[in-house]
Amino acid sequence: MSNQKLFNVAVVGATGAVGEQILKLLEKRDFPINQLKLLSSARSAGTKLTFKGQEVMVEEATPDSFIGVEIALFSAGGDVSKALAPIAAEQGVICIDNTNAFRMDPDTPLVVPEVNIDAINEHKGIIANPNCSTIQMVAALKPLQDRYGISRVIVSTYQAVSGAGARAIDEMLRQSKEVLAGNEVEPQILPVGSLPVKHQIAFNAIPQIDKFQDNGYTLEEMKMVRETKKIMGDESIEVTATCVRIPVVYGHSESVYVELKNDYELEDVKRLLQDAPGITLVDDPANQQYPLATEAAGKPDVFVGRLRRDLGHSRGLNMWIVSDNLMKGAAWNAVQIAEFIAIEK
Amino acid sequence: MSNQKLFNVAVVGATGAVGEQILKLLEKRDFPINQLKLLSSARSAGTKLTFKGQEVMVEEATPDSFIGVEIALFSAGGDVSKALAPIAAEQGVICIDNTNAFRMDPDTPLVVPEVNIDAINEHKGIIANPNCSTIQMVAALKPLQDRYGISRVIVSTYQAVSGAGARAIDEMLRQSKEVLAGNEVEPQILPVGSLPVKHQIAFNAIPQIDKFQDNGYTLEEMKMVRETKKIMGDESIEVTATCVRIPVVYGHSESVYVELKNDYELEDVKRLLQDAPGITLVDDPANQQYPLATEAAGKPDVFVGRLRRDLGHSRGLNMWIVSDNLMKGAAWNAVQIAEFIAIEK
């Protein structure tokens, strides 16, 4: 991206887990930055972070923070985005929002570059980054949708604790040590910090991510249903999800069952995925090779394997999809969107 | 079971993880034992175990071990069962086999007492105990099959390492300590001890349990397909499975999607499961109550929750099924069968 316009960029939530990854990626990708503004809550303001060898002071994010900013990446929670992104957008800032605040807003494009990059052209100042568990799934489903059509998706997730933030990682590691030492644990964060009941995550599987809705599904499960339809641009795709937290630090795994609209050859599916952007096919049962959370951690790709036909339904396909929830599931997808914006300017 | 005939009982594989649970249950249930014989491989012979306060010497299992025995519970691996169970059966011993050796043999009943106890009457000396992941699923599906009929099942499992034996538990705990200490790990057992490639299980999810078959499914996945049809007595039920090992010690969790043949009311499903033998319904989202592996560990029941209708398919139902894989998934199911045999004599 040499010989190109440089941008004034703000990162809102710069001290958080996703913000940290965004900064690393902006640096690594040599994003065309003129001026970089790091913003956070009042609590973290004053922290100094290093970007390309230079110290940058983190400032408190306020409505006045966005003067002169051209691109802002938000990952400081839904409330911060709701309060500040519309104000920034009104000032002409293009906001890329990592939270749930605007994802289902009909005026806000919900974008996974490999799936629906054209949607960014319809933005009105805010572009939403989908939920981590949705991003990796739709990235792998897109080549199948284009070639065969998709009628339904049944997904069960195996989600990492980093999706619940740094305190959830700490809790899981601390609990693991306690259990290994033969001590009792006192869960304090998971499954949902703001809810009263807590469950042990160490050496356990918790079938609750985010709050329950009136229909018995969790918000995380409903995000997968609604966001998939919106990103793939097809309200007729039926999605049902079971979202589960397991004791993994980085990397969501997903057991995805897809029913295609047309007949398929398994070898064609493998070729499609092999050639698809952002996808790495790891599918070699003879050598016990399949995607693993520990191997996806820190990498930008979506890893797909365990491809096999449903023996009872010839249009049914089982897949195992793994990706780093903080990378493609959050920071990398947001930076990809920022790069497309930069290229178009 | 007072005033009743006492039995000469042999436990083959008495020193293993499942054998240990069988002994505990025979003691706790006050099984009508005349003489108890503990058998094992030559390696473990000579070990002394305590049963009802008395020391019992473990002897090497040989073709001559079964003279005078009336009921034998096998859990010493498929090869031992293949070698010895037919010999014992010929001598009139009723063999309850926990291994995969005879499960799909047309002459061998495959029994989960809550589902198909009548099948034990057709035995020819050997009664097979199904695979752990199948047992807990069919126990929960049976009331739905009877009331609505089942057309298909799509299951993703979250399986505990104890299913792979004591050495796999040791490996998982040792690896966890290493990772927490910031050290590299050298996987040696999982996913399959006898195969060359090993993967880290600590803080990971491994989508391989047992060996891969030519069709791309693992043997564990194919067990769930075949055994479900046989136990439920309906070859038309379509089952597709993804079996995954996660870092949990005891208790398999399963995300099960069921498509029923007839319309259902969710409240009726809850009532059916609440009244079903061997099932404990834990389904109270408002209070964040659902089945958890850590809470199922050591208990005989199958725990079911997270019941909710597929929003796209009115006959589709999502369930979360959890049970201790060494209890209902192995030892308890075997002892239940032994109790039915004892009652019938």
UniProtKB/TrEMBL annotation, chains A, B:
<comment type="similarity">
    <text>Belongs to the aspartate-semialdehyde dehydrogenase family.</text>
</comment>
<dbReference type="GO" id="GO:0009089">
    <property type="term" value="P:lysine biosynthetic process via diaminopimelate"/>
</dbReference>
<comment type="subunit">
    <text>Homodimer.</text>
</comment>
<feature type="binding site">
    <location>
        <position position="159"/>
    </location>
    <ligand>
        <name>substrate</name>
    </ligand>
</feature>
<dbReference type="GO" id="GO:0004073">
    <property type="term" value="F:aspartate-semialdehyde dehydrogenase activity"/>
</dbReference>
<dbReference type="GO" id="GO:0050661">
    <property type="term" value="F:NADP binding"/>
</dbReference>
<keyword id="KW-0220">Diaminopimelate biosynthesis</keyword>
<dbReference type="Pfam" id="PF01118">
    <property type="entry name" value="Semialdhyde_dh"/>
</dbReference>
<feature type="binding site">
    <location>
        <begin position="43"/>
        <end position="44"/>
    </location>
    <ligand>
        <name>NADP(+)</name>
    </ligand>
</feature>
<feature type="binding site">
    <location>
        <begin position="15"/>
        <end position="18"/>
    </location>
    <ligand>
        <name>NADP(+)</name>
    </ligand>
</feature>
<dbReference type="InterPro" id="IPR036291">
    <property type="entry name" value="NAD(P)-bd_dom_sf"/>
</dbReference>
<keyword id="KW-0028">Amino-acid biosynthesis</keyword>
<keyword id="KW-0521">NADP</keyword>
<comment type="pathway">
    <text>Amino-acid biosynthesis; L-methionine biosynthesis via de novo pathway; L-homoserine from L-aspartate: step 2/3.</text>
</comment>
<comment type="pathway">
    <text>Amino-acid biosynthesis; L-threonine biosynthesis; L-threonine from L-aspartate: step 2/5.</text>
</comment>
<dbReference type="GO" id="GO:0071266">
    <property type="term" value="P:'de novo' L-methionine biosynthetic process"/>
</dbReference>
<dbReference type="InterPro" id="IPR005986">
    <property type="entry name" value="Asp_semialdehyde_DH_beta"/>
</dbReference>
<dbReference type="InterPro" id="IPR012280">
    <property type="entry name" value="Semialdhyde_DH_dimer_dom"/>
</dbReference>
<keyword id="KW-0560">Oxidoreductase</keyword>
<feature type="active site" description="Acyl-thioester intermediate">
    <location>
        <position position="132"/>
    </location>
</feature>
<dbReference type="GO" id="GO:0046983">
    <property type="term" value="F:protein dimerization activity"/>
</dbReference>
<dbReference type="GO" id="GO:0009097">
    <property type="term" value="P:isoleucine biosynthetic process"/>
</dbReference>
<keyword id="KW-0791">Threonine biosynthesis</keyword>
<keyword id="KW-0457">Lysine biosynthesis</keyword>
<dbReference type="InterPro" id="IPR012080">
    <property type="entry name" value="Asp_semialdehyde_DH"/>
</dbReference>
<dbReference type="InterPro" id="IPR000534">
    <property type="entry name" value="Semialdehyde_DH_NAD-bd"/>
</dbReference>
<feature type="binding site">
    <location>
        <position position="245"/>
    </location>
    <ligand>
        <name>substrate</name>
    </ligand>
</feature>
<protein>
    <recommendedName>
        <fullName>Aspartate-semialdehyde dehydrogenase</fullName>
        <ecNumber>1.2.1.11</ecNumber>
    </recommendedName>
</protein>
<comment type="function">
    <text>Catalyzes the NADPH-dependent formation of L-aspartate-semialdehyde (L-ASA) by the reductive dephosphorylation of L-aspartyl-4-phosphate.</text>
</comment>
<keyword id="KW-0486">Methionine biosynthesis</keyword>
<dbReference type="Pfam" id="PF02774">
    <property type="entry name" value="Semialdhyde_dhC"/>
</dbReference>
<dbReference type="GO" id="GO:0051287">
    <property type="term" value="F:NAD binding"/>
</dbReference>
<dbReference type="GO" id="GO:0009088">
    <property type="term" value="P:threonine biosynthetic process"/>
</dbReference>
<feature type="domain" description="Semialdehyde dehydrogenase NAD-binding">
    <location>
        <begin position="8"/>
        <end position="123"/>
    </location>
</feature>
<feature type="binding site">
    <location>
        <begin position="162"/>
        <end position="163"/>
    </location>
    <ligand>
        <name>NADP(+)</name>
    </ligand>
</feature>
<feature type="binding site">
    <location>
        <position position="103"/>
    </location>
    <ligand>
        <name>phosphate</name>
    </ligand>
</feature>
<feature type="binding site">
    <location>
        <position position="325"/>
    </location>
    <ligand>
        <name>NADP(+)</name>
    </ligand>
</feature>
<feature type="active site" description="Proton acceptor">
    <location>
        <position position="252"/>
    </location>
</feature>
<dbReference type="GO" id="GO:0019877">
    <property type="term" value="P:diaminopimelate biosynthetic process"/>
</dbReference>
